Amino acid sequence: MTFKSYREESRANYGCTDRNPNNEELKLGALLRIADATEVMAKEYNRLLSDRNLYKHWYDETRASRDRLERSNAALRGQITKLRKRLAGTQ
Predict the structure, then answer these.
(1) Where does the pLDDT of residue 3 fall: very low under 50, low under 70, confident under 90, or very high at 90 and above?
(2) Which site from 3, 44, 60, 61 is most exposed, i.e. has the minimal number of CB atoms within 10 Å?
(3) CA angle (35 as vertex; 29, 40 as ends), nearest 5
(4) What's residue 72's pLDDT?
(5) Is residue 29 within 8 Å of 14, Cβ to Cβ?
(6) Distance (Å, rounded) from C-alpha 31 to C-alpha 10?
(7) Is the pLDDT at 77 greater than 80, yes or no?
(8) Could you give the 3-state DSSP secondary structure of residue 87?
(9) 21 φ, ψ to 5°?
């Protein structure tokens, strides 16, 4: 007896050609379509999450860089002020 995975078998394209499908077969078809749609939604959701994580990473890096530059500018402005005072005192 051959092993058949439920997951793989659920993706098979079932149907009938010689008669109209009965109520149970219609329910099965609807469930299979719902399962397919859910898989597509999950892929899109995962893509959105990865995009959000990427943008958050970029935002955090940019913010940290901006903070470093602001501190550096403040320190340099302090040095300029100190040098101006020293220069004014010698003249």
Answers:
(1) confident
(2) 3
(3) 130
(4) 98
(5) yes
(6) 10
(7) yes
(8) helix
(9) -70, 145
Helix (H) or strand (E) holding 91: none
The one-letter amino acid at 32: L
The answer to pTM > 0.70 is no
At 42, the amino acid letter reads A
How far, in Å, CA of 11 to CA of 30, rounded? 13
Tokens coding 73: 């500018």
Structural contact between residues 5 and 13, judged by C-beta atoms closer than 8 angstroms: no
d(C-alpha 28, C-alpha 14), whole Å = 9
pLDDT at 10 over 70: no
The answer to whether the beta carbons of residues 9 and 32 sit under 8 Å apart is no
Residues with Cβ within 8 Å of residue 14, at least 6 apart in sequence: 25, 28, 29, 32
The helix (run of H) or strand (run of E) holding residue 20 is none
